[in-house]
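HOLO CASE FILE
Compound: L-homoserine
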Amino acid sequence: MKSVKIGICGLGTVGSGTFKVLTDNAELLAARSQAELCITHIGARRDNPDCPVGDVAVSRDIFEVARDPEVEILVELIGGTSVAKELVEEAIRAGKHVVTANKALIAEFGNELFTLAEEHNVVIRYEAAVAGGIPIIKALREGLAGNRIQWLAGIINGTGNFILSEMRDKGRDFADVLAEAQALGYAEADPAFDIEGTDAAHKLVILAAIAFGMPLQFSEVFAEGITRLTPQDVAYAEELGYRIKHLGVAKHSAKGVELRVHPTLIPEQQLLANVNGVKNAVLVEGSAVGPTLYYGAGAGAEPTASAVVADIMDLARDLAVGQQPQIAGLGVRCTELQALPIVPMAEVETPWYLRLEAEDKPGVMSQVTRLLSAEGISIEALIQKAPHAGETKVPVVVLTNTAAQGRLDKAVSAIEALDSISTDIMCIRVETLNA
Ligand code: HSE
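Model generated. Tokens follow.
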């Protein structure tokens, strides 16, 4: 059996998980890929006491792995975008295939890296970059290759979903759950990426590029985080029959492509509404297949390693029989990607959940409904709650019919200008997720 030589750069959460899966399951992986998967070189700035590497060569300078002529597949698991980019470029120029879990790298620099890889006749695989252990890249790029993808929507940040689930189910405090997500190795090095939507935006733009055959356009993704959500919003949404999830949505229509990440009310009977904890799920609507749903662990050492190892095996299978791995990074070669217009957020239409604080006096509700109606926004449901202890203002929750964000913003500004209304109206989009 041919052996394929692998260099791993980075021995943190995902690196150590990958080392463990490759060594624990070595026989099974060899049988399945018809190649012996040999880790011959590790690049790590420091040892990981939880991951003894035996007699594998270790370099403190990770670039030594890219320069090692024996290494055929370089596995980049250091994260970040500056050193990681240089490392991947050096590996590609040295004729090595690359496996990475680095969504920021692919989302922000994928266009140039895939082009460079094509020029050097090597491939970059990155299954672990999106939705942890769920094989969503392979599903979109290969399993659904016969479809035109119309839209996809997903819970694609495990940390954020873990926080929302714990807040809802156990009434736990936001900061406390975030600290636990960090301790469990779910959160990014900078957890602001998780809670502000940047991590989900990285993943969404990758999914959209594959789904719609377009170049990666990270700067075009609208990203809103979960930090403004309150326990009241979670509870009011439930009263209306919804759950709040942090969703990435990509839709392709005649107007162009919508790329957006934001908290979203989802009808409670939808499967996505019931995806809890660190789990991720992605719903994809294909022209031939209809809706399909992919579910699993979105973060954590071994789930992410599962995806990294699958990529290594795909490459090893080809290398073992002397064949050049071929599948293009985004499903088609870079020159065949089609630039598509991005729909401005002001034109994106959804129903809305609004929560406002109003003086409890006659005429206030009619002023609110009049200002919504002036922008052509009709009301689906309206609930007035009892005032909080010691407060004179009462919370009012409004569910609207579909309205473009531009019109909604105008109506909200006009409502906030009323003396009887507080100036911090909470606006959350609603998605029914029906085809
Ligand atoms: N911080 C990420 C998450 C890790 O919580 O989903 C997996 O990409």
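CASE NOTES: Residues 132, 157-159, 186-188, 194, 199, 298-299 surround L-homoserine (CB under 6 Å). The longest strand covers residues 242-253.
CLOSED: yes
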